[in-house]
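SEVERITY: medium
COMPONENT: batch folding queue
REPORTER: lab tech (J.R.)

DESCRIPTION
The queue accepted two submissions in a row. Attaching both inputs and their returned structure tokens so the on-call engineer can compare them side by side.

ATTACHMENT 1
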Amino acid sequence: MTTTTNFSGKTDSRFRAVEDAFRENFDRFGEVGAALSVYIDGKPVVDIWGGHADAARTKPWEQDTIVNVWSTTKGIVAACAHRLVEEGQLDIDAPVAKYWPEFAQAGKESLPVRYLLSHQAGLAAINSEVLPMGSAFKWDVMTNALAKQKPWWEPGTATGYHALTYGWLVGEVIRRITDKSPGTYFLETIAEPLGLDFRIGTPASEDHRIAEVIPAEPDTEAYFARQMSDPESIQFKLAFNPPDLLMPGIVNTREWRAAEIPAANGHGNGRSVAAFYGALATGKILREETLARAIEEQSNSTDVVMGIQARIGLGFVLSSPKYPMGNGARNFGHSGAGGSMGFADPDAGLGFGYTMNRMLNPLKDSLEDPRWRPMMVAVYASLK
């Protein structure tokens, strides 16, 4: 079915091919609703949106529509941590327990902060106890459980994606230093000064403009899904402890939206994500030397949780063939489950942000969403 309705926004004439690629995704991949923005040197050259904000296709996607972006939130949290590094309040080589004393349980007394940011801490899931329903919405319950948790592997010896625990781990370090939740710290320190329409923990007053997330069809052949069939596996514990953590439809509930789950429940749009990465690319959030350290490669190996090779920095994913982020040699960012994406090209002064409500499975043996490449190719072709 061809979708041609409800496309709005502005595109500089030089970047018309980017808008064309965005529109074509609706026909090629069954896009329901989405937004795409590209910033160059702090200014938007593409800011477009289209489709519908609900599965029934009764509510148009508007200029101010926001949506849950899943793990695209992780890049936001990483920037908050590096802001504290820049201010001299956080040493990423210091033990986590320096800032969070209770974390020193189960042999973790010397585990450094950098392992939290680089997914090398061995804390990708909670196995120390079975948590009750609703625990994911209770900050202290999750952080207390992680403080007790014994690493699944020797920290620093492997990389395993901390899909959900990353947010509580890095977020608690931020909270201990600032006495503010990571969502509040981000809002006050980065979002409000830059005018970003992005929140971690979203009040009910914004519900009217939040798009409904439409889940992808289960991919039973994917490595993660196959491993999850073992109830003692990291993958099973990641998804089902607490048992309602990834329950179908939970992402569209008020409880999910209101909570701070800093690895997975940021709400924003393409404009806010692109502006954020554009600000990182142009030194408006972090100084050049701080950013350079943040995007130093920490690992380039097969992830023991996801089973896919990826290049990992300190809180950011680095561009690679199986996780493409345009053409820049130093490009970095973070995507979210089902397809949202934000990345920066510091050499081009570029920020890219794409958000959508219909989740798709990534390409086989990859982390790449099929909708990304046409838009990214068009962006870089337009820069020539």
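ATTACHMENT 2
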Amino acid sequence: MRGFSGKVAIITGGASGIGKAVGEQLARKGAHVVLADINGAKANEAAESIIRAGHSATAAELDVTDPEAVKRLVDSVASENDRLDYLFNNAGVVVFGEARDFSYEDWRRVIDTNLYGVVNGVAAAYSLMIEQGFGHIVNTASLAGLVPPVGLISYVASKYGVVGLSNALRVEGARYGVKVSVVCPGLIDTPMKNSKVLNLDREKLLGAVPSLLPVDECARVIVGGVERNKAFIVVTPMAKIAWALHRLSPNLGMWLWGRQMDKLQAIRIADEVRV
């Protein structure tokens, strides 16, 4: 309880999924959480649920691809509370499909949200945290930021960027008292399973996915890792095994992921290439 009691945390993508579950965990441990989400109504519902449980929360409507809006929120929260202890750059989107089926807008939406959303959060909060002499930035990447699964190419590109950014910022931030962690979940039961799918049979795609870890269990791992200031917070045993294998033998890892292309080809529902 001492670790988070009285602390202030902003969580983007806080209306549902991992962001909402992390917010609930932190609030139960005594933190004041600001749940920021592009869906303001759902963010309000999530915050009200935390308040009804006797904890402290507020909500904010936020598009993380708008750097000025992110800066306004960070400055406002820090000013109102005289501090900002945590920024969880958690908002994210995914599009499933082969690279040949992606439009430019599909690429842009994923990278703008997943990578530039993190950049915007860092740009808004990092200098503030240096000035106050403390703070912890927690960036949500994915197992797909550590290994290259098929059918997720824009997501992989964005999450590899988040991992690299987080590692570099952790090195810099240590000099100024600012901590940085990157979260790399495996398969978690979140609304992302309802995301856009390009030229693949959605039911067969989801049917091929192994069992998903409940989001509350994922949140407990994340909060515990943040409390211990872990550089990498990898969630699920399967994700840890996949990452270890990829580090041990990258070529073998790439070969194994390549074998999954046969399964992806088997569930295609259109052969028309999008330009």
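NOTES FROM REPORTER
The beta strands are 8-12, 32-37, 56-61, 86-89, 95-96, 135-140, 178-185, 196-197, 232-235.
No errors were logged for either attachment.
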